């Protein structure tokens, strides 16, 4: 139990450290821009620049999912600025583009998805549920989510990805707030979304994992099927897309096994070989090439950057999970090196890093290691929630 508790604790630190590390270079698709903007590869927490070299924030749909150009409801009301992300609409509508998605955050601050994940864990630990898999637990989490997202001043981030905007676009008509009513709304919404002929492709993204991960962490001592079910039952309510559940299942099984002492390297290899990803043959040449260089060397980083570029830098779940499990395989016993490599591989490194950091932290915690203390100390808005969660475990 002590080892598993340590594993859960280091997973919390790892996921938040990885998210905060990547935040200033989130969605940098030209990795040379990282070196240019920060005077070399990232080695610690940084604040973002106001300008983002490949930002498409101003093309994003402030009324719902995706981009404005894709939206059929051109006259739909904004959810950004009115329902969520209060006082942030001006950045979405700025002339000239290139606004950083996380402008205004400070070094060591976490993105919105990471904060939402910590609030999930707080709602679950504070609710004293017999099992986090019960409907009442999901209802409590969703009610807290609605309150947090719709209350001005609760966070400082500028960006909310498509699943948030789509949820609150649908929510703003009935506007339920109680746990039972929000749960009922989300369940009905899931049924409706799963019956459409063309699902929202923006929901098939690795951003499905952060709010689901606490359900696995807090089911670490339950059996694997219970832990997986708890995560999947919840993610249906935020990401109603037919492909998402199999990817969440794959990740949740790997995380639960790692929390309980299974070898992360073996878990990552099994995930990469799974029919869901089928990426092992693509990874093997990069794994063999990286083995020629010292861990965390510049030459090794270049190999990992090439691997992630080949496997997928973007948010779509299959590619992003393939990149994430590749990094988990290569840095299975090195949370410091793995978190930095993930950041410096660019692309969708925040949500990918969040999932990776949980795995690397879990393995380190179980085997007596830890996420670097200086990173724990440097987390600006995650320290208090993590300490509170650990106290309630």
From TrEMBL:
Q: What is this protein called?
A: Uncharacterized protein LOC106574652 isoform X2
> Which Gene3D superfamilies does this entry report, sorted A to Z?
ADP-ribosylation/Crystallin J1
Family annotation (Pfam families):
ADP_ribosyl_GH
What's this protein's family per the entry?
Answer: Belongs to the ADP-ribosylglycohydrolase family.
Q: Which InterPro entries match?
A: ADP-ribosylglycohydrolase, Ribosyl_crysJ1, Ribosyl_crysJ1_sf
**Signal sequence bounds:** none
Record's PANTHER family?
ADP-RIBOSYLGLYCOHYDROLASE
């Amino acid at each position: 139990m002590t080892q598993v508790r340590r594993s859960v604790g280091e997973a919390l630190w790892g996921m938040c450290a990885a998210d905060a590390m990547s935040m200033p270079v989130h969605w940098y698709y030209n990795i040379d821009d990282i070196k240019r903007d920060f005077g070399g590869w990232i080695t610690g927490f940084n604040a973002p620049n106001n300008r983002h070299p490949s930002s498409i924030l101003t093309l994003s749909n402030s009324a719902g999912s995706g981009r404005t150009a894709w939206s059929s409801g051109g006259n739909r009301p904004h959810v950004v600025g009115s329902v969520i992300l209060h006082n942030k609409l001006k950045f979405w509508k700025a002339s000239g583009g290139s606004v950083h998605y996380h402008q205004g955050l400070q070094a060591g601050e976490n993105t919105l998805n990471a904060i939402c994940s910590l609030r999930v864990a707080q709602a679950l630990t504070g609710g004293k549920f017999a099992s986090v898999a019960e409907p009442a637990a999901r209802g409590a989490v969703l009610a807290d989510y609605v309150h947090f997202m719709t209350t001005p001043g609760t966070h400082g981030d500028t960006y909310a990805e498509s699943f948030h905007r789509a949820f609150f676009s649908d929510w703003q008509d009935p506007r339920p707030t109680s746990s039972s009513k929000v749960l009922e709304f989300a369940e009905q919404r899931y049924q409706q979304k799963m019956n459409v002929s063309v699902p929202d492709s923006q929901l098939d993204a690795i951003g499905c994992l952060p709010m689901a991960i606490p359900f696995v962490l807090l089911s670490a001592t339950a059996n694997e099927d219970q832990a997986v079910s708890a995560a999947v039952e919840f993610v249906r309510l935020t990401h109603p897309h037919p492909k998402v559940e199999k990817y969440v299942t794959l990740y949740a099984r790997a995380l639960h096994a790692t929390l309980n002492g299974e070898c992360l390297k073996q878990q990552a290899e099994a995930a990469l070989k799974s029919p869901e990803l089928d990426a092992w043959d693509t990874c093997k040449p990069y794994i063999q090439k990286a083995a020629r260089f010292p861990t965390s060397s510049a030459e090794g980083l270049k190999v990992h950057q090439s691997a992630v570029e080949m496997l997928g830098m973007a948010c779509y779940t299959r590619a992003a999970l393939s990149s994430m499990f590749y990094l988990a395989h290569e840095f299975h016993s090195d949370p410091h090196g793995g978190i930095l490599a993930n950041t410096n591989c660019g692309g969708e490194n925040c949500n990918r890093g969040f999932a990776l950091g949980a795995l690397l932290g879990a393995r380190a915690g179980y085997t007596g290691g830890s996420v670097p203390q200086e990173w724990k100390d440097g987390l600006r808005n995650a320290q208090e929630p993590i300490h509170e969660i650990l106290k309630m475990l």
